[in-house]
Amino acid sequence: MEKIKLTAMDGTEDAEVFVLEETVINQQRYLLVTTEETGDSDAFILKVTEEDEEEYTYIPVEDDVEFEAVAKVFAELVEDTDFEM
Q1: In this prediction, what percent of the chain has a pLDDT beyond 70?
Q2: With contact defined as beta carbons under 8 Å apart, do 49 and 37 qualify?
Q3: Beta strands in the chain (DSSP E)
Q4: Do residues 50 and 66 make contact, with C-beta atoms less than 8 angstroms apart?
Q5: Around Cβ 70, how many Cβ atoms within 10 Å?
Q6: What's the sign of the alpha-carbon dihedral 48, 55, 50, 62?
Q7: Domain residue spans in the chain?
Q8: Helices in the chain by DSSP H: which ranges?
Q9: 43 with 81: CB under 8 angstroms?
Q10: pLDDT of 23 higher than 80
Q11: Which residues are within 8 A (CB) of 74 and not within 5 positions of it... i.e. 6 or more apart?
Q12: Could you report the per-residue pLDDT of 36-45, keeping only the tens digit for each?
């Protein structure tokens, strides 16, 4: 499982997350990530908003309609996963 490091926009906070799944919808790339590599944990949907060689900008999907559409795709890709806003 791929691990990525997230840094807050102000550069003050780092977090490591594990990529469970990735998909592209309407030319927009989305990641399903979790804070734990194994076992049950919260998962988050991130949207890739910028790509610059080795650096990416990720934002959480907060729009309800967009979240529901992307969560539906991830639910088909990943079994035993419940999505809540």
Answers
A1: 93
A2: no
A3: 2-7, 14-25, 28-34, 43-52, 55-60
A4: no
A5: 22
A6: positive
A7: 2-77
A8: 64-77
A9: yes
A10: yes
A11: 21, 23, 30, 32, 45, 81, 83
A12: 888 778 889 9
